[in-house]
Write a structure and sequence with these properties.
Helix content is 74%, strand content 0%. It is mainly alpha-helical. The protein starts with 7 loop residues before the first helix and ends in an 8-residue tail after the last helix.
């Protein structure tokens, strides 16, 4: 089907839901390691406790992609029903999370939260390819980057805003999560639901070209067994560009995972010098780590306006490699910084990288996969995000304990090295026409 070009505000409306999704991810990334430490976790336990995130993505995203490819409702369309279901479940999990009373309760709720966010998020990637012609897809994925940056700015800064502007307490007795974190998660729940529903009601979807044939193919399908069969079959038939991007994604997300789970606590312990999680200095460090995440997200928001131009000038793969190198420099520089304000310069590089990470690989991929299997292939592509995260979750705790002597800063440095490797693999991608 020849798809009409959409104007700026139509692309804005269809991407706005990502603002809410990023509230879920932003609060999680900036606060979960601290929540685990508040509830008694040790440094070498934290990676394993984060295992929920990649495992739920590994299972949920390809299945939701397969299901959304085979869904059509005259009013709600193909992808939007999943946006709504995920939004409802995610909002409930965000409300419950900061009320966790035990370590394993928090870990269990993280499983629920991640599964729910993935239900909403996975169809959004296919949504861009569904709605936009090839020449507008870079713009569409970059608009998602803009909302990812904006949402993460606010979400990451919320605990700092709660304690420094609204004077909400940022400390609590041992085993209790501070009120500033609790209120931040409540606000995030409302923002998640509201942003998703805005996109649901402000955007329509194109019906299948041959609706009768679509219904017949759906009837021939089957349940979860058929879904797994198709997913496995498509793994063996991945387009060449997808296979090349797999290496890029593997090292990119290995680096990101290391940064997310250790940056905040590294700021508290290595930069500010906090020695225990009940101290005021530790709380300030975690809050400042969140502010650093907010700053890199602000850079993401701003750089999103320039990234399409950069991709047009030098090509998508070169633009992506340059952005990854900027992120690598940012993460590696943390090792020589002793002033918390200088960390903002490091995070500027991470923000540039993040703008590209959440847009250009998907723009390169979208033109290489069949339209009617957009959802399932986007879900399979997620394997190369979650597999490195699973490896890190299962094995990095041992590395942290026996190699790095529980020095959280080393996790951040490993992240920078992984970004460099990902940039090198990016230059091998055969992105036709760019």
């Amino acid at each position: 089907m020849s798809k009409p070009q959409l104007d700026f505000w139509q692309i804005w409306n269809m991407s706005f839901g990502f603002l809410g999704i990023q509230f879920g991810w932003g609060l999680q990334m900036a606060n979960m390691s601290a929540i685990y430490e508040y509830l008694g976790a040790e440094a070498d336990q934290i990676p394993l406790l984060w295992l929920a995130a990649p495992l739920t993505g590994l299972l949920v995203q390809p299945i939701i992609g397969y299901m959304s490819d085979r869904t059509w409702h005259p009013r709600w369309g193909r992808r939007r029903p999943y946006f709504m279901i995920g939004a409802i479940l995610s909002s409930i999990a965000l409300i419950l999370m900061p009320n966790s009373s035990t370590l394993w309760m928090a870990a269990g709720l993280l499983w629920i939260l991640d599964a729910s966010i993935n239900v909403s998020m996975e169809p959004f990637r296919a949504f861009v390819a569904d709605k936009l012609p090839e020449e507008q897809r870079t713009q569409g994925f970059t608009m998602q980057s803009l909302f990812i940056g904006l949402g993460a700015v606010i979400a990451s800064a919320l605990p700092w805003i709660m304690s420094n502007i609204f004077n909400v307490a940022n400390t609590a007795p041992e085993g209790v999560i501070p009120p500033s974190v609790k209120y931040s998660f409540y606000i995030g729940a409302a923002a998640f639901f509201g942003a998703i529903m805005y996109t649901v009601f402000k955007t329509d979807e194109y019906p299948p070209e041959d609706l009768q044939r679509f219904k017949l193919e759906k009837m021939k399908g089957g349940g979860i067994g058929a879904a797994f069969q198709e997913i496995v079959g498509n793994i063996g038939n991945m387009p060449k560009v997808m296979k090349q991007l797999a290496y890029v994604q593997f090292f990119t997300w290995l680096g990101l995972f290391c940064m997310w789970i250790y940056f905040g606590v590294a700021v508290a312990r290595n930069v500010l010098g906090a020695v225990d999680q009940e101290s005021k200095l530790y709380a300030e460090g975690i809050e400042w780590g969140g502010m650093c995440f907010a700053f890199y997200s602000l850079v993401t928001f701003l750089f999103a306006f320039y990234l399409p131009k950069l991709a047009q000038q030098v090509g998508r793969k070169r633009a992506h490699a340059l952005c990854l190198l900027a992120g690598a420099i940012g993460l590696l520089s943390v090792s020589v910084i002793g002033n918390k304000y200088l960390l903002l310069f490091s995070m500027a590089g991470v923000g540039i990288a993040w703008t590209s990470i959440v847009s250009l690989p998907y723009a390169m991929l979208a033109g290489a996969i069949p339209e009617k299997k957009m959802g399932v292939f986007m879900g399979i592509f997620n394997f190369f995000i979650v597999i490195p995260e699973i490896i890190a979750a299962l094995g990095f705790g041992l590395v942290m304990n026996y190699v790095f002597d529980n020095n959280r800063l080393m996790g951040v440095i490993v992240g920078g090295v992984c970004f460099i490797i990902a940039a090198l693999f990016t230059m091998r991608v055969e992105d036709e026409g760019y």
